[in-house]
Amino acid sequence: MNTAEFSALIFVGSCLAGFLGALTGLGGGVVIVPMLTLLFNVDIKYAIGAALISVIATSSGAAAAYVREGYSNVRVGMFLEIATTIGAICGAVISIYLRAPVIAVIFGAVLLYSAFLSYRQKPHARGQVETGRLALWLQMDGSYPTANGREAYHVRNVPQGFGLMYIAGVLSGLLGIGSGAVKVLAMDQAMKLPFKVSTTTSNFMIGVTAAASAGIYLSRGYVDPGLAMPVMLGVLSGSLLGARLLTGATVKVLRVVFAVVIAALAVEMIFNGLSGRI
Amino acid sequence: MSDLEATEVVRSAEQRMDEWMGRLLQGGVTLAAALVLAGGILYLLRHPMPMNYRQFHGEPQDLRSIRGIFENAKALNGPGLIQLGLLVLIATPVARVVYSVAAFAAQKDWKYVIITLIVLGLLCYSLFGQA
């Protein structure tokens, strides 16, 4: 296999990952690491470096649109980014000391859990929510566009959200993923933000979180240009295409299919990690 | 004033900030993709056989440091240009945070100026803090 063929294959795989990731809202990053390690026999450290880069590309691209439409809560995002960047730096530093099979097993477990979360993901019950004291001090309440114009909402449980965001950051830095599932969990379930605001604010934060660990990965030599090039361009074009096609009905079926694929990849990562094949 | 009206007042001040932020992110990603594509073409032309990725060796020093990447990119070296594109990509969210500091300062929202500066400090630590 020459370089052009190798790059083309990775490009096509990454494109598909980005496409499905955007269509289902799960992000393409989670499939990149298993794809590179299981299919292309790439060392997991190179795979994580390339995946992290693709995560920054897709999240910044998508966030650009959401921010302009006024869905994301920039204040909530900024404040919680303190937690995710500290976590991301910790995660990237921890990963330097972990052996490849250990990272593979952790990766598989997190993948299984996020497949489960996304499968079951439903907005928290909407009811009268009172603004928390810290949220009030930080002026976090906001409004977002709905079918009947902009609707106001309240924010609470900031400390719990902050704690969960730290964990999301560690996972992102350790595994090269966006950990959008955990971020949405923190904002929707804990802090009671509307679901649409949670997902778009999560997207807004993913770029900064990933950038915090990407700097460390780059200076440690984990980011290979020959590998990152097809992955970044593939995931970016795939997710742009997916975002264009984003419409209701078929997405539900795709979501289930994608969750099953992710679960299967997770099991294989764990198996290969335990049997020392990664 | 109702809740909605109250948030609407803040909203109009923030709307412009949101739009500029969106443009900044879009521009950064587009520039990064163009650099990676250009570098990728050069790379494919000059490297007929792919590297062995099965074992981790780590990148050479000059593709890890900001200065080395700039020198390689100036010499129109494929991998150097790709790494420069990736640096631009990493810098894009950082630029967004820098912009937020200025935007919150213009709104005289000092609480958020401090919060944003903390995030910026953490990002700079990760980008420049490693020897």
Brief write-up:
Chain A contains eleven helices and two strands. Chain A is mainly alpha-helical and 278 residues long.
Order of helices and strands of chain A: HHHHHHEEHHHHH
Please tally the β strands of chain A and state the result: 2
Helix fraction of chain A, binned, reads: over 70%
Radius of gyration of chain B: 20 Å
Largest interface: A-B, 69 and 71 residues
C-alpha Rg of chain A (nearest Å): 18 Å
Number of domains of chain A: 1
Account of the protein in words:
The complex is a heterodimer of chains A (278) and B (131). Chain A is mainly alpha-helical and 278 residues long. Chain A has helices spanning 3-24, 29-39, 44-69, 74-97, 100-120, 133-137, 158-175, 180-190, 195-219, 225-244, 248-274, and strands at residues 142-146, 149-153. Chain A has one domain (3-274). Chain A contains eleven helices and two strands. In chain A, helix 4 runs parallel beside helix 9, helix 5 (100-120) runs antiparallel to helix 11 and helix 8 packs antiparallel against helix 9 (195-219). Chain B has helices spanning 3-46, 66-74, 78-106, 110-128. In chain B, 77% of the residues lie in helices and 0% in strands. By secondary structure, chain B is mainly alpha-helical. Chain B has one domain. The chains are: A mainly alpha (278), B mainly alpha (131). The interface between A and B is large, with 69 and 71 residues.
